[in-house]
From TrEMBL:
Residues where Fe cation binds: 80, 82, 130
Family note: Belongs to the cysteine dioxygenase family.
InterPro entries membership: CDO_1 (IPR010300), RmlC-like_jellyroll (IPR014710), RmlC_Cupin_sf (IPR011051)
Molecular function terms, GO-annotated: ferrous iron binding; oxidoreductase activity, acting on single donors with incorporation of molecular oxygen, incorporation of two atoms of oxygen
CDD domains: cupin_CDO
Pfam families referenced in this protein's UniProt entry, alphabetically: CDO_I (PF05995)
Protein name: Cysteine dioxygenase type I
Amino acid sequence: MADLVAGVRTAVGRHLGWRETSVLVAGELRRHLPTPDVLTAEERQGDPDFYQTHTLYVEPDGAFSIVAVVWRPGQVTPIHDHVTWCVFGVLQGVEHEELFVHEGDHLLSVGVNDNLVGEVSGFAPPGDIHRVRNSGDQTAVSVHVYGTDISRIDSSVRRVYDLPVRG
């Protein structure tokens, strides 16, 4: 984790815009993607009722956090967006991501991604509305890097959308 933390610190320290920062941080996560062993065997089991998060690191000045997420098969987030940029990498399993745009009184489905082991992606608001699920038959584990102190604000989610989906 030390190399990942140092790389993210350098990327964030350039003080670029959110999109540019997410691209730089994605490069660091690709270079230093940990293995599922970043969590204990017990943590990797997940929770039967809801996906679990484990804070791995918070930069002392709050500039970024690194969090592991454990998803049992079928577990899913609500449709949501974020308070800041986010970069994630899949360590185990498959994370199915659905992408949306907000159009008046509904959401429009604009894409899907199956993120496999070793894949890294990122995004920055606005335009980061999505829903993520474990679409595989084994527990999925991913690492997420957020541009804020997650331990201080408790969640990276800015808004949950409860609108009809079209398209």
